[in-house]
Specification:
single chain
């Protein structure tokens, strides 16, 4: 069986379906399958659920699929500096499932190996799990060893204020 194809479009021929699930490799913008992403963009495949470390940037990586509204849901560990991602998520156009990086990697490994499920000890049964209000936490305290107050907010974060009543 020949696994080598002349180009990305021919490699994906007969595989792309609207609503499909895609696991995309890479970390940040390094090692991403940019030629395959471009071929998916060109094919117009839509309503995609994509599991990847992040969704690229506004005009590169998975961001090009996002810009054309071909992605319905992202399963990621990092949102990054992608203004269109922020806009679609905050407006309810894009579903998002956050996973810690290690959990995301294990989900992909387990899925590839045919393992239907696995357990993680992400705070369950620990002292931290009864002592902190989950509605006030963005990052589990177990992962934070030192904190500083920065001067800038990330673009994906939005600060909303209102006048005192």
């Amino acid at each position: 069986m020949n696994k080598v194809y002349a180009d990305a479009s021919s490699a994906l021929e007969g595989l792309l379906l609207d609503g499909m699930f895609i696991a995309a490799g890479g970390f940040g913008l390094c090692g991403i399958p940019e030629l395959l992403i471009d071929a998916i963009r060109g094919a117009g495949t839509k309503d995609l659920t994509i599991a990847s470390n992040n969704c690229g940037v506004d005009d590169f990586g998975l961001g090009v699929l996002l810009k054309r509204k071909q992605i319905r849901k992202m399963i990621s560990s990092y949102v990054g500096e992608n203004a269109e991602f922020m806009r679609q998520y905050l407006s309810g156009e894009l579903d998002l499932e956050f996973n810690p990086q290690g959990t995301l990697a294990e989900r992909m490994r387990a899925g590839g190996a045919g393992i239907a499920g696995f357990y993680t000890k992400t705070g369950v049964g620990t002292v931290v799990a009864g002592s902190l209000d989950p509605d006030q936490i963005h990052l589990p305290g177990i992962y934070a060893h030192r904190l500083i107050q920065g001067e800038h907010e990330k673009r994906i974060e939005q600060r909303t204020t209102r006048a005192a009543a």
